[in-house]
Amino acid sequence: QVQLGGSGGGSVQAGDSLRLSCTVSGRAASDYAMAWFRQAPDQDREFVAGVSGTGSHTHYAEAVKDRFTISKDNAQNTAYLQMNRLKPEDTADYYCAAVKEEELVIITRPASYKYWGQGTQVTVSS
Question: For all residues of the chain together, what is the average pLDDT?
Answer without folding.
Answer: 96
